[in-house]
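Lab meeting minutes (informal)
Scribe: AK
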Amino acid sequence: MKALITGGAGFIGSHLAEALLREGHHVDVMDDLSTGSIENIQHLKTHKNFHYVIDTIMNDSLLHEWMDHCDVVYHLAAAVGVRLIVESPVRTIDTNIRGTEKVLEAAHFIRSTQSSSKIEFFSYEEAYGEGFEDMQRRVPDISKIKKQIGFQPTTSLDEMIQKVIAYFQMKGAL
């Protein structure tokens, strides 16, 4: 498999490149180094299946050229970091939204003219916020609704649906 990693000189992208190379895949990296670092991929430069270019995903012709020869695109290119977002909000929005749009447009064009490319999206905690401290132990409190609809842990799904419908009918919502 031949993969293109946009934002491949970032922390996640460089580790993904390492993993793909270990599995025997060919890896191309495109990164403008605005938030990534050449040091993250320095040790990969001598690998025979590794190629990189320092450029932006906003460069349509280069993006099309590099995507044209790959089986999968791991789209990690993004302007991240609170300082960058505060100092350059327009650039951040342009890179994150328009850049992603350019990757999708290139994939659509390539797919319409030849074989299909698969696009994989990844993101960072900054996009979603922090998760619950311990998702395994967090149990939502549904005691009020359990009491109102007479839900018991042994209630069948059909029974529960009937009780929910009856509850909303009683309240005049259905």
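Next up, CB showed the second protein from the same session:
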Amino acid sequence: MKLSRFNVSKEYEEGTYWVYNTFTTAAVVVNKETYLKYFVTENFFDDNLVSQQLYEMGFAIDDDFDELAYLQSLRKKVVYSNKKIADIIIAPTMDCNARCYYCFEHGCHHEKMTIETADAVVQYIKENWNGDLFNISWFGGEPLLATDIMDYISNKLKLENINFISRITTNGYELTDDVINKALRLWHTNKIQVSIDAMFEEYDRIKNYKCVTEKGAFQRVIQNVESALLAGLSVRIRINFNPNEKEKAENLLRYLQNKFSHFSHFSSYFAPIDADSNIVPSVASSFSGMKKHPFLHLIEFGQKYGYYCGNKRGTQKNFAFDETGLLSDLKLYPSPTNCYASCPSVFAIDSKGDLYKCHRVLGKGRQYSSGNVKTGIIQNEIYKFFCNTDVAFKECNKCKLLPVCQGGCKINAYIYNDEHACSPIKNIYPELIEMYLKRTRAI
């Protein structure tokens, strides 16, 4: 019998330790003597009862059990289990009315989808649909610049008897009353995500909207969000933040809560800006020069408003071993794969009908695409990179977070080849584990 490589421990009171396993999510609290006996010297033979309990919880494993090989087998099982699809990302246009400095779509084309391509998209869905309720994520570009294409595809799917729901990712500027009516009536939208990164003049400066000369873009978006909420649509605000400017994210959340917290179908979350380190530092960095890691600081701030506390807002479905939803909120819940884009049949479709394994490279052409809805899938280099179940970096196999991130973000590993691929909680997971244990009263 030997110790699991995924045990995390800390002395949180003098002579008392907590130990947590990132794979099984088991936790124990032990005194120093017990900690040294089992978790330092690995003496599993003097007390069969304790040894058996630690074994059953995953802290101890068989000598010949290879945890890395087992995780690899889980990734393979998930990646190759589904032949048909139940969801897809569609960009009806790659054009956008905003010009954010950090946007990952710099360098993509800006074409709008044609009717011919829209027909091919519907045919692709028809041929690959698994028969369950189909989920469409409207993306872009800014998808609301091509509502006619969204109308067309939605109507065609209805004619094909494909039962679907949708969600929209938008900057919110074009979320007019007419669009809200279409979202409810025609697109079967159940959630809208609006990305906001600052307030008032700072927001206007960052978004730098095309063909908008007057001030007040922020107020327009906020009014549109309120209109959507009043119409009954669920709205989630993605608060994009630069780790070096966490105060702006705090101020924005405070403002949004004061404005919208009375809507039960409103929510927000903090999302680190994912860009080149020369533009914005990776949130996976240690930030050792700061008193507290910026993401940990924001999580603690969000808890004041009921976020990162489990399922207190809404009726979100929980996973096994996460009865409260808290592990998922804190990004600690183990996953069988790093990203479902690794599944061979999962794609995002840009406005030309090109197929991409990841929506973050939509519209960037042959280097990143793997075929087209009209001509089929091409198993090229990027396709094979995504569908390969090996971790991107050898160091991943030494990381205690491997059961959670399963090797991290594939596309960031491909583009940046550095810690951008790592989980955003890479340098704060011990603090988050302790936060989880305290909130569940394990310690």
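CB comment: The chain has two domains: 1-65, 87-386.
No objections, moving on.
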